[in-house]
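REQUEST FORM: STRUCTURE PREDICTION
Request ID: SP-0412
Submitted by: Lab K.M.
Chain count: 1
Length (residues): 1379
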Amino acid sequence: MPGLIDPPPSLPPGLGFSIYAQKLWYDIDFATRSIKGRTEITVQPHSKDLRTIRFSCRQTKITYIAIKDHKSPQLRHEDPYSRVDFNVGYGVHQHHLLRQKVQAQLDGGSEDELVLQLPKNFHIEEIEDPFAMSRENATLRLDGDIRIENGDIPVTTEIPKVPGTGEDQAYRYKPIEIILGFDVLGFRDGLQFVGLQKDDPWYPHAFTRSFATPAHPSCLFPCVDDPTARCEWQLSIRCPRTLGDACRKPRSLAPPMINGSTATDVDLPNGESNGTHRADSFNLEDQDEFLMELSEEEKVIDMVVVSCGMLHDEIDDPLDPTRKTVTFRLDTPVTARHLGFAVGPFERCDLASEFRSSDEDDRLGENARPVWGYCLPGRMEELKNTCMVLPTALDYLSTQYSIFPYKSYNICFVENSEADVIDTASLSICSSRLLYPQDILEPLDKVTRQLVFALASQWMGVNITPAGPGDTWIVIGSAYFMTDKFLAYLCGKNEYRYRQKTYADKIFELDVNRPSLYALGSILALDPSEMEFMALKAPAVLFILHNRLIKANGRSGADTCIEKVAKNGKVANMTNNCITTDNFFRVCEKVGHMKLEGFFAQWVYGAGCPDFVVQQRFNKKKLVVEMMIKQTQIDSVSSAKVEPETFMRDAVEEVHKIYAGPLQPLFTGPMTIRIHEADGTPYEHIVDIKEAVTKVEIPYNTKYKRLKRSRRQKERAAAAAGMDVAGDAQDDVLLYCLGDVLQSEEEVLDWQLTDWSKEDEDKMSQESYEWIRMDADFEWICKMDVHMPHYMWVSQLQQDKDVVAQAESIHYLSRMKAAPLLSSILTRTLMDQRYFHGIRTSAAAALTNAAKSEYDWIGFYHLKKAFDEFFCFPDSPMTRPNDFSDRSRYLIQCAIPKAMANIRDEYGKTPMAVKTWFIDKLKFNDNSHNEFSDCHYVATLLLCLAETLIKRIPPGGAYGYQNLTHEAEIAEADFQRKAVEEIERYRRIDEWTSSYQNIYTVTTLDCLKKLTLENVIPRRVEDFMQYTQPGNAPNVRIKAWSSLAEVGAMRHPPLRQYLLYSLESEMSPYMRNEFYRVFGLALGYIALQGNRSRQKTGPLDNGGLVIDQEAADTRAEEIRRSESIEGALESLKNELQTDEGLKDSLKGVLRSDFISLKEFGNFLDICAMLYEPVNSLRVVLKYPRYFKVEHEGKGLLHFVPTKIRTTPLPKAKPPTLPQPKIVFQRKPTLPVPSTSPTPQRPPFHNIINQQQSTPIPPRLSASPAPPPRKTIKLKIGKKNSTALAALASSSASVPMSAPQPSPQPLTSVPGLNSQMPPPASVHPTPPQSKSQPSQPSDPSRNNTNPDVGDALSLPADPNKPKGIKLKIKLNSIKKEEGV
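STATUS: Completed
RESULT:
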């Protein structure tokens, strides 16, 4: 973890050049889902020694390359997608070998994919006046054939630069213009086609899906894909003119047109056309067949192109009337990752004219940017309802931070998008899942925040980018901070602060064993939850930083820091608008005029959150409040249990060796303590936390006096009765108090409310202050446990106007032991409409604690009474027709049933009165006069009804058998049957009339899943399987698969294989990501629970006797699985490593032609979890075949394979030479002189193995002539003639050399041990002794020149017979090739 004293992470080394401008031409074919393109890149060298230019270029096929006015360079293109082929021999155990091939690309590297080597004769020219070249380039328009020299166009003096280049050498060398042509025939990443496929009913359209993270580089065209490399762009897209033209079946055409010329034409670097393309090559009369059914009105719908930048022109193709070319310009330099477009039959809406007032337009003047919305046909009303807030948001952000960095803002909604929002320059490509009609209320908050965040990302995220992965938190946090500030302007301060309090509490729960914000940036691609956590914590850190800066200087906070960064990058000392953590740290210090090393070290480079325990008491002698503030995060830290929902994140982090940052024992900083004394005046004190245990004494400012609660209650009652509060009592009445409803005697009796007891009033009268508020200015993300009596928390709830203080009080009251008094306080909070709706819904949820038999079910009574008061006819349980015009009332109407569904008796069962209440509300629900849909409200009632059927024993509840009467058992069974039938009835409603996003089907599947898990109904897998098939709505399929995983159906191998097959064959990246998430969820359940069913058995009811059926070792195994990720992974390996079907399915996914490189890496991670790496490969060979050969004449032979050969061929033998002629003669041989004193006949093999020691003079023949026939005569014995014949036969099969006509020595035959001496002079060498072994003959070391040479080689065997003459005709022995 880097510290603040360490230098910031260095930028990537310079490439030796920068990109000044780039032009792109695309020709899109919807029928074949392919594109043909061309790009012209203007490269600015930084040195005359530049010889290699590197680009990112994946999944594209380079068709041509040229340098303007020069020879084409050498090209080396290595597509990383070619390395993801699952070759024959690779298996799931070779996952580490496959990862090594693509690890560089998975880490974000891509510069070596396309390497251009400049020609040797190419020289980079140096410019004498670089400032003149700078001025010339400043006036150079993107269409390079136009140059303005008279100053008609304003000159842009700010030139984009690349790290490592200085301003003095930016234009010292003449630019290089490189032209590249490319084809993309199958997209795995970068561009997504929708429609014109089976089970794909959407209108055909295409859109880019690049993301600004290292794991998602640009995959659309050759470029320098670096977050620090920016340039200007021109984009020309050639596409079908109408929807009917896009849906025509593929046709055979001449080469496609690009910018008015054919692909064959653009191959020529000089730009000349070859004239081969003619308009009469198109025959439209033959193209009447379409790939999808279209009406006549749909056929003429125009295809619209939405892209970054401003529209330059739109020209119909003069040679093809079915196509057109649309050109866009983007003058603001951006990175390649932020270039995007969409093509489809979109409808267009001017959102600015629809929702921006004329006064606002006049106030902004030229800074009022147009806002355009695009959607598919039929969804215009949803677009207007969803995006109506965007013009107001753009005007607010432009006023508060800086002018919008682009000339217009576009938002386009498409189908099957992988992400909800894709950010590109001046264009946000959003999923149509975000669209909702005017009568839907539920997604209002979530979708509005997502769309405003997409708009804010144009400032922080597109215009300002992170310099490195560790700096991603700045742009993510700043964009969300800007979003929340606008929502505070739109919805109010209470909404803003309550949302921040909710986020802070969630961060404290999740920030356990997590990396720091800075370290989190490098692992965002591992799991979607990493980005979700950053999006949660980063803006919260900026929020508390904002509060501390405001306290320090009084006016400037984090919004001022963001404004300075967004307005002018020079203030932050940024390069190419790339922000670093160190730059942002300096800006914050400069704005706040304070030191922030400790803050950044704890909250940016550190991990975890503090846990405070606060104790206080009043010292009457000193008149001070003594407080002790203790940090206990180290003492209370515990390893988080492994859950199925988080199993994949923990497992992937374990595979990649990513560990949590060290938990800090001490957090430091200022903390505001606010003491509300007896007179109601708050006194603030700032305490500087520097130690783990901080003790402070806070002076008391008010005279020791306390107003009695009984008197206050009397004054409230008097005010409620209309009496005037006068006299001395007027001074004692509090000025403001919430929750003072239902105060009359009739209301108290009717609602069965309880007041403070005499004992409580006496205690309150002895207190010196009303309550103590810790961290009143919200400067910490922490857990604060303040030891105060419950009546002080009630005072804080009723008298503190801060919604955060009220939320803290409700949180404490919900944890304390229930009592009728607590139920009365919470009921008054629920009924007081002055409270924020979040406080009221929290109070409703807390009333469940008082719904117990020991309190006569007072909590249930208050909840039911509140619902009847708000939503039923007077004095009747019959609900009024729904009216959701007041959104706060709608939220209360949904919150009360959720709270009632959690009511349980001591046996864990829901009382029958609660169950029948839900049946009645579903039966009598009336939405006929409501302008809003009630589908989400009905879905809430269905979930609550299913919850009432589940037995959940509360803490301290009774286990065992509950004695019920026969009538009660019949009533329980009858209610269960009716409830399940009601759920099934709503499940079938979507089959006739679809609800919004099939909410009824999704909800009922969730209900059936819960009931199956709790053994309420038997498990029926077929109920879920029918919704997993293609053709169902995407969210329905996803819910069905998730339900199957949770009920334990994935323990069956066929279902796992079916899920992976669905993923392998799915073309939608959104669905593949969801299937991957479901598969990870299934692995989590298998790892934690094994291959057993997830249905709970629970303890057996046997007359109150609890029988434990699990063995001790099984229990220990379950504990080991759930306590550590290592134990869970080991259990998962043991369960699945022998599943051969799973291995085949994983191999099928890795071989899929649809998955992207990131998805390929994800499944390699799964293989690493399940299987040990093996460095060997299994080689699979095909059986050999017999071949039949046919002679076709003229030297051609035709080989035809026939049947398969399964048996090995006989062992090959050396070729058999002609049998030598052997002549036996019975006459004496030549005398052999002996060198030994005693004449002794040597053995036969020694005679043959002798070497000639006397040189033989060369022959005198001048011309080569056939050598005379020679005969070698050897005398051996008369016996053993049979052995001699065998000897001759073996010698005939040995390769021999024929005598050469040349006088040079003959080439020795391999395998011969010696040379044969000539017959005229034989001088045998006596046999060597056993102590001196014979050395093998080496012809290269032989200095003699024998006449015959190595003509014959016979094995040396002393047992061979002797005394027989051997006659061999040497000229009958043929010389073999190579001998």
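NOTES: The chain has 41 helices and 32 strands.
Reviewed by: T.R.
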